[in-house]
TrEMBL record:
CDD domains the record matches: NfsA-like
Protein name: Oxygen-insensitive NADPH nitroreductase
Name of the gene this protein is made from: nfsA
Database matches in PANTHER family: OXYGEN-INSENSITIVE NADPH NITROREDUCTASE
Keyword vocabulary terms for this entry: Flavoprotein, FMN, NADP, Oxidoreductase
Family statement: Belongs to the flavin oxidoreductase frp family.
Length: 247
């Protein structure tokens, strides 16, 4: 493996940071790396909001589920799927309103934003910084949108905390590659597959070690817990309100 692959394989979520500030120049470089990510049809449907105001950050931390590092991390970015910028220019060019609300446009903007953000994280990690994605801001997307003055055709996909790590989390084991990489056609997972049983054992051991024995859970058990309950059902109405996923 080359150095880039090694860096990618070492990724962990960092939630505890040293107070070292991140310069505007560093941030510019990371955002420029994000901009070089692939973008569907060159729409470039991502906007990033840097939040510095302590009051706003405390409110976001509360909305995200009392994640205190949202308030305290040296850098907080909110990544937004943004169709407003391109739509405004297109309407100006065509001199007429655009058809809006297509689910495909939502997918394009969301995927663009995720690719952009992953590049930002990788750029930061290449300079020995660390971070964590904050999907919890979708717990209360309307309040987040109001806090950040997000207009129609813009929605907050996730936030990201970045800074110099003040912890060294162990690597969380991923699924065996041969359960993810398939040949020619989709191959459904068989619950009795010994590779899955081995992976469940690895994940259970990881949680036991990380929590000092307080968490004892396999990956299969975690998926049952996660997928067996409602998952932010308010998001559909919020997206409709923002002009997304109408057709």
């Amino acid at each position: 493996m080359n150095a880039t692959q090694e860096l990618m394989r070492r990724h962990t979520s960092v939630r505890k940071f040293l107070p070292d500030a991140i310069s505007d120049e560093q941030l510019q470089h990371w955002i420029q790396a994000g901009q070089q990510a692939s973008t569907s049809s060159f729409i470039q449907a991502t906007s990033v909001i840097r939040v510095r105001n302590p009051t706003t950050r405390c409110q976001l931390a509360e909305l995200a589920g009392q994640q205190e590092y949202v308030a305290s991390a040296p850098l907080l970015l909110v990544f937004c799927a943004d169709l407003l910028r391109a739509s405004t220019l297109a309407e100006q060019q065509l001199s007429q309103p655009l058809p809006q609300g297509y689910i495909e446009h939502l997918l394009i903007a969301t995927v663009d934003t995720a690719l952009f953000a992953q590049n930002v994280m990788l750029a930061a990690e290449s300079e020995q910084y660390g971070g964590v994605f904050i999907g919890g801001i979708r717990n209360a997307p309307q309040q987040v949108a109001e806090l950040l003055a997000l207009p129609s055709l813009v929605y907050p996909v996730f936030a990201m905390c970045l800074g110099k790590p003040d912890q060294a989390p162990s690597l969380r084991p991923r699924l065996p590659t041969d359960l993810v990489l398939m040949e020619e056609r989709y191959q459904p997972l068989q619950p009795e597959d010994p590779r899955l049983h081995q992976y469940d054992a690895e994940v259970r051991q990881y949680y036991r070690e990380r929590s000092g024995g307080k968490k004892d859970m396999s990956w299969s058990e975690q998926m049952a817990q996660l997928l067996g309950k409602e998952a932010r059902p308010h998001m559909l109405a919020f997206l409709h309100n923002q002009g997304f996923a109408l057709r």
